[in-house]
Write a structure and sequence with these properties.
667 residues, alpha/beta, 9-stranded mixed beta sheet, 6-stranded parallel beta sheet, 17 strands
Length: 667
Amino acid sequence: MELNEFQKDIQRGIPDTLPELQPYESGVNHAPVRKDILTSEQKKLALRNALRYFDKKHHSILASEFADELKKYGRIYMYRFRPTYTMFARPIGDYPFQSIQAASIMLMIQNNLDPRVAQHPHELITYGGNGAVFQNWAQYLLTMKYLSEMTDEQTLVMYSGHPMGLFPSHKQAPRVVITNGMVIPNYSSADHWERFNALGVSQYGQMTAGSYMYIGPQGIVHGTTITVMNAARRKDDGSIPGKIFVTSGLGGMSGAQGKASVIAGVVGVIAEINPKAIQKRYEQGWIDEVFKDLDSLVSRILKAKEQHEAVSLAYEGNVVDLWEKLAEKRIKVDLGSDQTSLHNPWSGGYYPAGLSMDESNEMMARNPDQFKREVQASLIRQVDAIQKMTANGMYFWDYGNAFLLEASRAGADVMKTDGTFRYPSYVQDIMGPLFFDYGFGPFRWVCTSGNPVDLQTTDEIAGDVLQVISLNAPSEINNQLKDNIHWIREAGKNKMVVGSQARILYADCEGRTKIAAAFNAAIRSGRISAPVILGRDHHDVSGTDSPFRETSNIYDGSQFTADMAVQNVIGDSFRGATWVSIHNGGGVGWGEVINGGFGMLLDGTSESDLHIKMMLHWDVNNGIARRAWARNDEAIFSIKRAMLAEPMLSVTIPNLVADEVIDQIYW
């Protein structure tokens, strides 16, 4: 398609003439069929909700078509309206726009739906089995049209994928404000989500899918790498080569595990039941070798361990079978975890042992109660095998995917006598005390030129900035800086780009602010040829309240509150964010977490310099302040350091109470 045709398609929005029906492409990785949860009256309502996007002259044709989709797939995706142009992040100048900020958002939306990036691209799902950018293709078309028309004095309001419209605002306001799944708290069960989503009134935005900030598996690979490295350092003599790491999942965010294992220097063994997911990661170079036979895989694992290889080995099959084989053979595994999408256990996030993928997909749609029983029985088997491995010296952690939570609900033996989990969250042992409490988190950026040379330049700038910071950094963060400098210096060599020219780098407030300012100066001088989009995963120090993951190392009882995430988004919105988002749900499930996120366009202007200073400082230190108030020692150190650096910052510091004072009252 020619550029002018593409631009006209964007500006057209929902076409006045019905496009031709497109064939259902069996070679695409499609979302599983959702269960039939609506009553007859609710199905009528779902149709009314879908048809309101279209002129009534089309209703008789589309009503039948959409009813058929609802029957076949459990959702109305409006496949007829899927664009015929190739979906990918184009250079920013290729988009029709009146506001370059709006163009940056169009770029990120298309990157989230790029088939190389998205898990189920035709269903508008980016990762996690249900992490959606939009609920249907009409929403996509209408949103892109609004963005092409938007000026710098308007804001687009997004209700769970639905573009409510353009509203007058001002230049310093966000161009887009996004909410996903923000239902009344008592209506956050799994069935509520299924029902509201089938009705077309709410969606699961995951963490970065519905906020347009997903950058493919690279978005999690750095965090996975430093988790695996620091987990390995906890074992034995702290050396890394030759250690075996066993886990599962190669779909969305979990797709980073193979690459992360190699970068960390371990033998990574990852089970994945979906052959299409394995093939995608293998073709992208994120998996080195694929096995279907467990005995052959075990032999290869032992050889790799003996030779201290850094290699990623995928098992095409069920993770329970893998764990049970390793336990049976008494293989000495050093590190273990799980990244199946157990936030979504009944709709394709977890496939039980003893059933093929096709059998599972059929059962979850036609007999959901039996499927739930199969999943829970499988979780019990998985935990039993893991316990045999931990008894043999394996360090196992929960990866914040609701594995321990759902295993406990299934009746697996994962609880201690005090009611806490037998195994730690990786945030409790590693990411919380070493990174989040010091303000380090998954800072990321996208070069809107689409030019790899610009990405290389940003890597060099970021590495140089961190190198200078490290010269005078306190000893408490020396190791973090050292690992991150090594990461960014090697980033280009590891070929992590999938989709947009993007990078991720764990950095603290000082690092993020100085790197962003250096980017803005380079854009101004022409060293970087086009604007740069800043963002982060919500998996960070400040953006997410999640008691079983990001805030699992908050011990003052406030881990079940969500003030931080909500304050984060409000604060970002008036300090210079280009767009902001707030979500119910994420990696640990609907009703289990609130996520806040942002995107910011750097265009080389003095306004961008001001936004960098104001917004990034708040975005990090809001979280550090909350963690310090929870009495986390590392966060207290960090917020005191932040106040010394910024005289305008004044934060309440907790007074620590000696244990004996409390113990003499309650004993």
